[in-house]
């Protein structure tokens, strides 16, 4: 039981180094998705307060950009150390407000910290170049400068990692950041901000604003002072934000909806593929942007794979995230539960067969479910499920499968199991996604670029590419 951790969290917004309540005392309730009990509240900041935050961030930017890169990175390393020291308490807070099992929450805190550690490397910053000159007295230089005031709107499914993945490269580059966390999971964000302050991140450099999503979003996207927006969430909301950013021509990083195919070829190691599917499909109760959506299995191994997957799924333990041995926590809210139920009902009505699971467990969980006889025409295959349902689709022709997958709107991630190198190379070339995992169910790492193509967004987070998103290029011609 982690209730003491909820009582210890900050329940105010963090703006310009100050902890704020709403001017009109409006608040938003935060609940534990496993119990429905209230964990606390956060303020609904007014439009005036959001504008004041943007102004303070701009003032902080012109100070922070002058701090030497080595010192900025040293502050990030200090923040990393603070997070590592507080990892268990942070994980408990995360479990309380998000619902994922404590072991997964610990893993997320470590993952979140890894982004700070990665971007706290001055060597990742572009040091520019001096170009060969055409005439003796002339020199030509290309340098990189920080974009400016940046904003991030982050999701509830990874409330720590989705913040550090955006904030760490921004701060390393010399930018400042205003973060709007998801209303379901603000406490993790506020705890991270408190640790950043203790690590010496100056006032105004990192701000956490809480409030009405539409009002905050419109203030951030409409402000010409905010030069860049980074968003992780649905494709529909991403389109809206992109349109709102158009008048001020903001730079954008959008990590949007996914529909990751998990492909099991006839020559795959079936046991390894089952273990990979368990990781890729059921982590965080299926609520991750790179979750395997539909599982496409070659006809020759379909039955064997299905039987072994069902046996593994039946061993998963449901319960509160703070209970020992739990693998599957609750879905984030009632709307998510209803969506999963609707997708399952539609699939069964269209001929799919429930092999295990298939119904609610208590009022806030959905049993991990395996569907056989699923087809590419079913809604649960065409759309992102974001829940613990694994539809198994039989395929016989790999080229036909690739053609079907290329027709999908999403293009975030894919997983392929095969022991044939030529086949792996073919899938690597022809899958229209930003990331592919071969013979693995886990693909994320701070050192590599994360992002998608088509309707799954634009820009990359992580790797060297992640810091380039926060840098502008300037050319200087100097006559000596």
Automatic annotation (TrEMBL):
The keyword Oxidoreductase applies. PROSITE patterns: ALDEHYDE_DEHYDR_CYS (PS00070), ALDEHYDE_DEHYDR_GLU (PS00687). Gene3D superfamilies: Aldehyde Dehydrogenase, Chain A, domain 1, Aldehyde Dehydrogenase, Chain A, domain 2. Belongs to the aldehyde dehydrogenase family. Residues 22-476 form the Aldehyde dehydrogenase domain. PANTHER family: SUCCINATE-SEMIALDEHYDE DEHYDROGENASE, MITOCHONDRIAL (PTHR43353). The active site is at 255. Coiled coil: none annotated. One of its GO terms (molecular function) is succinate-semialdehyde dehydrogenase (NAD+) activity. This is Succinate-semialdehyde dehydrogenase (NADP(+)). GO terms for biological process: gamma-aminobutyric acid catabolic process. One of its GO terms (cellular component) is cytosol. Keywords: Oxidoreductase. Its EC number is 1.2.1.16. InterPro entries: Ald_DH/histidinol_DH (IPR016161), Ald_DH_C (IPR016163), Ald_DH_CS_CYS (IPR016160), Ald_DH_CS_GLU (IPR029510), Ald_DH_N (IPR016162), Aldehyde_DH_dom (IPR015590), Aldehyde_DH_Superfamily (IPR050740).
């Amino acid at each position: 039981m982690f209730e003491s951790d909820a009582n210890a969290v900050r329940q105010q917004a963090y703006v310009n180094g100050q902890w704020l309540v709403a001017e009109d005392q409006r608040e938003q309730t935060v609940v534990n998705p496993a119990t429905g009990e209230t964990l606390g509240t956060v303020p609904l900041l007014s439009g005036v307060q959001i504008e004041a935050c943007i102004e303070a961030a701009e003032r902080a930017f012109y100070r922070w950009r002058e701090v030497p890169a080595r010192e900025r990175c040293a502050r990030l390393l200090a923040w990393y150390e603070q997070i590592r020291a507080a990892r268990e308490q942070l994980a408990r807070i995360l479990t309380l407000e998000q619902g994922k099992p404590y072991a997964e929450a610990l893993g997320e805190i470590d993952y979140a910290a890894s982004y700070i550690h990665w971007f706290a490397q001055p060597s990742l910053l572009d040091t520019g170049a001096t170009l060969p000159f055409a005439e003796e007295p002339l020199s030509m230089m290309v340098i990189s400068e920080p974009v400016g005031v940046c904003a991030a709107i982050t999701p509830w499914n990874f409330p720590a990692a989705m913040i550090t993945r955006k904030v760490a490269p921004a701060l390393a580059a010399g930018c400042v950041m205003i973060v709007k966390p998801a209303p379901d999971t603000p406490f993790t964000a506020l705890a991270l901000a408190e640790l950043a302050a203790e690590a010496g991140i100056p006032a105004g450099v990192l701000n956490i604003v809480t409030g009405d999503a539409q009002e905050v979003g419109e203030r951030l996207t409409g402000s010409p002072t905010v030069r860049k927006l980074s968003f992780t969430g649905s494709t529909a909301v991403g389109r809206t934000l992109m349109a709102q950013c158009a008048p001020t021509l903001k730079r954008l990083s959008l990590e949007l909806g996914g529909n990751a195919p998990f492909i099991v070829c006839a020559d795959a190691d079936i046991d390894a593929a089952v273990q990979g599917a368990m990781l890729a499909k059921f982590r965080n109760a299926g609520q991750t942007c790179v979750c395997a959506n539909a599982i496409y299995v070659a006809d020759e191994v379909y039955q064997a794979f299905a039987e072994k997957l069902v046996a593994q799924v039946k061993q998963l333990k449901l319960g509160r995230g703070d209970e020992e041995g739990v693998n599957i926590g609750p879905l984030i809210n009632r709307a998510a539960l209803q969506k999963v139920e609707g997708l399952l009902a539609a699939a069964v009505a269209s001929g799919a067969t429930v092999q295990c699971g298939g119904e609610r467990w208590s009022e806030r969980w959905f049993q991990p479910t395996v569907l056989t006889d699923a087809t590419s025409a079913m809604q649960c295959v065409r759309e992102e499920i974001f829940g613990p349902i694994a539809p198994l689709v039989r395929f016989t022709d790999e080229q036909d499968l690739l053609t079907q997958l290329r027709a999908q709107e999403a293009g975030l991630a894919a997983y392929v199991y095969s022991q044939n190198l030529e086949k792996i190379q073919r899938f690597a070339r022809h899958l229209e996604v930003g990331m592919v995992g071969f013979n693995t169910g886990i693909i994320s790492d701070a050192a590599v670029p994360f992002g998608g193509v088509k309707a799954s967004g634009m820009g990359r987070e992580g790797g060297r590419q992640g810091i380039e998103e926060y840098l502008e290029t300037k050319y200087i011609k100097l006559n000596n």
